[in-house]
Amino acid sequence: MSDHNFIERETEPSGTEGTRGRRGGWIASLLLLAALLATGAGLAMWKIGDLKEADAAAASQPEPAEAVTTAVATPREHRQTVSAIGTVLATQSVTLRNELAGTVHSVALRPGQIVGAGTVLVRLDVSVEEAELAAQKAQAALAQTLLDRNQQASLTRAVSASEVDRAKAERDVAFAQIARTEAIIARKTIRAPFRARVGLSDIHLGQYLDEGTVLTTLQGIDDTVHVDFAVPQRIAAGLRRGNEIQVFTGDGRPVSGSIVAIDARVDPTTRNAMIRARIEGGENGPSPGASVRVEVPDGPSHQAIAIPVSALRKGPAGDHVFVIERAKDGKMRAHDRFVQSGPVLANEVLIIKGLAAGEQVASSGSFKLRDAALVTVADHATATTSDIAGGSK
Known about the structure:
It is a single chain. The protein folds into 4 domains: 1-59; 66-77 and 303-391, Beta Barrel (conserved putative lor/sdh protein from methanococcus maripaludis s2 fold), CATH 2.40.420; 82-91 and 219-302, Beta Barrel (Elongation Factor Tu (Ef-tu), domain 3); 98-213, no CATH class. It is 33% helix and 37% strand. It contains 5 helices and 22 strands. The chain has a 6-stranded antiparallel barrel. The model is unreliable at 1-14 and 380-393 (pLDDT under 50).
């Protein structure tokens, strides 16, 4: 009994010490967690203090302003147009051919040369015709002499009236043969029918030409040229002779013209009608056969607003501009506004809807603006400087 009691007394202190060790570990962990939480709270308070100081510093800085130039929206008379591709035609044009066969005696076809009306371009050999003409003239002279003698003799009734009539008919036939031979010689002498520019040619001396051989092409030189183009029948129905159009040549330069003819027939395949317009061309105008772009009016004219092309901004939501206005706080600010844009005319773009005449828009520098941004206008530097100075107080 005494030994057993001794063992129990020895084992009890050992269990109590293990329990005390585990409790000490938990207390240490709690103390470490508390220390970490206290450290984190301190760091958070320090960060919040830094942010407050940064906000206070930012609030003390003046609002930045973007430098821009402005333009005033101006009213323009605008008429909707449609585009078409036209072909330039000379007012006079001909493919030169020979009417009669013959051998080339002389040729004066220099491609690109401008020749006047009546200039001899090609002359065929007419030596046979000239010989026949000489004989016919002699025969005509004899016939005239016989007629004169018979007419004198008829006065004394030496010859009958029938003989006088026969002599007169022979005289007329002789002169008719002369006229026929002269016409053949003229037809073998090819002349320019009007003032024109000579096209390409491949005719040489001594070359035999069949009837209808193409000699060259002649394009008339005039102060005006024609432009033929096709438009849909809906557009053609609203066009009239005398309507003004714009023709854009190869260099992009617009030339004014007017409609002179509208084809009475509509193409059943394309449903287009051919239109002919006249433009001032001259020798320096577009060459016949050249392709040009034609702007044709469509509908009545109406008022639009013109601004510089640089003022219009493109975006996924649509076209927009920045209108420069004085805000309630007295500062000049940019306000984003969506607009409906129209055609571009040279350095300007027409605004159909969304902008009023007289409003100021940012032209250069608009790419860096945002809605309600403070701006400094380069062409109004004095007024803008005072605006910014007042805003920084």
